[in-house]
Amino acid sequence: MKFVFPPLWIGGFGAGTVVFWTDGWCPAPLAPVKWVFLGALLGGSAVIWWTCVRLKRVRIDEAYLYVSNFRTEVSIPLAALARISESRWSTRTS
User: Which residues contact 52 (CB under 8 A, 6 or more apart)?
Assistant: First the structure.
């Protein structure tokens, strides 16, 4: 979800948007469609960035909870945690 889906979706919609915006390709009746594709590209990219790119890898051992964004890792002592919850895919819990 973090490394495969965003490039595929953004790349696919980006390519479709470029095709619609290419001069001479888009016939007059389809002119509004190029704005729909541009809006879907911008809006969808923002949603994907907000939900997928922020995903973290989490693991646990006897003493620590480890949270990683695949570049850096933070160790949190289990004694410092009051509550832990899980969020699958894009479903958010509070």
Answer: 1, 2, 5, 6, 90
